[in-house]
Amino acid sequence: MKNIFEFAEACLHRTDIDEKLALTHQAWQLLQTRRLSFNSDRPVLPILNVKFPERPQLLAPRQMPQRKLTNSGGVIAFFHAIAHVEFVAVYLAWDMLYRFRGLPDQFYQDWLRVADEEAQHFALIRAHLQTMQTDYGDLPAHSGLWEHATDTADNLLARLAMVPRCMEARGLDVTPAIIEKFKKLGDDKSVSILTRILTDEVGHVELGSYWFKFVCRQQGFESEAKYRALIRQYYKGGKPKGPFNREMRIIAGFSNAELDWLEN
Ligand SMILES: [Fe+2]
User: Fold this and answer.
1) What is the CA(93)–ligand 1 centre distance, in A?
2) 8 Å CB contact between 79 and 125
3) I need a labelling partner for 39 at 20 to 30 A (CA). Which of 4, 135, 147, 261 fits?
4) Cβ atoms of 98 and 40 closer than 8 Å
5) What separation in Å is there between the alpha carbon of 166 and the centre of ligand 1?
6) pLDDT at residue number 143
7) Claim to verify: residue 195 and residue 262 sit in the same structural domain
């Protein structure tokens, strides 16, 4: 039997990209054949020990060049940015299951599935970039994504509120319009990749909602009030800005009351 937390430790602390993708798929395969154990007596290393590859160079959001989808450089920059989101998403899924112990086995199985899907998304986007003579790491990337993890390293409810139920939920709001743009440009390959990713992301946000409510019940919190309080506490700038994709967010486990609060 191999242990899920050994895989998590390797994926979070080693920088080789191909090794990380291979280990993620291997762990998922072992889970399918019931050869993965969830025994958690290995210590949890501090989040500052997590290591990212040397490339891409990470820049503050305001230093990132502006991009437009109307020229090939803009399309490349857009997919490089998405590759980075997916790459960090692999880390976020592993970190969710690595850092928070003592939950039902299902919690670890769910986030391992997310890690595996994010690794697939990254590989799809990377291959798409390579058809445009670009690799992941050739351009700079946004440094902000991982901050949500470091900010919430000691608070599972804050992590669930900020990562799946805020940052990833934002993808549900913005991706449909981007897919429409690629449809208008006649770029079928980009449309199919982004549609596949969007479908999986709804499931990831839904898992975030499920576990957020589960842990709220466990800790005796009313989940809607707790969500509002955590967003107010952890979201820089007070509250995420809309417009929100109500239809998809409802499927992903948001309540109408939560969406009304976000909108007002
Ligand atoms: Fe993804």
Assistant:
1) 10
2) yes
3) 147
4) no
5) 14
6) 87
7) yes
Confidence of residue 69 (pLDDT cuts 50, 70, 90): confident
What's residue 243's pLDDT?
Answer: 96
**Structural domain of 260:** 146-264
Q: 56 preceded by cis ω (within 30°)?
A: yes
Give yes or no: residues 137 and 214 share one domain: no
Percent of the chain with pLDDT over 70: 100
8-state DSSP, 54:
S
CB 43 within 8 A of CB 113: no
- Asked which of 99, 114, 141 is the last residue of a domain, the reply is 141
201 CA from centroid of ligand 1 (Å): 6
Q: What is the mean pLDDT of residues 34-60?
A: 95
pLDDT, tens digit, for every residue of 164-180?
999 999 999 999 999 99
Q: Are residues 54 and 16 in the same domain?
A: yes
Burial of 62 (0-12, 13-18, 19+ CB in 10 A): exposed
> For residue 256, how far is its CA from the centre of ligand 1 (angstroms)?
25
Ligand 1 centroid to residue 77 C-alpha, Å: 17
Contact criterion met (CB below 8 Å) for 201 and 113: no
Same domain, 174 and 123: no
Confirm whether 43 is domain-assigned: no
Interval between CA 56 and ligand 1 midpoint (Å): 18
- pLDDT computed for residue 200 by the predictor: 98
40 lies in some domain: no
CA 117 to ligand 1 center in whole angstroms: 7
Q: Distance, CA 220 to ligand 1 centroid (Å)?
A: 31
End-to-end CA distance of the chain: 51
Give residue 141 CA to ligand 1 midpoint distance, Å.
Answer: 16
CA of 189 to the centre of ligand 1 (A): 17
Ranking 12-21, 39-48, 79-88, 216-225 by mean pLDDT, the lowest is 39-48
**Separation of CA 234 and ligand 1 centre (Å):** 22
Does this model's pTM top 0.85? My answer is: yes
> How far away, in angstroms, is 237 Cα from ligand 1 center?
25
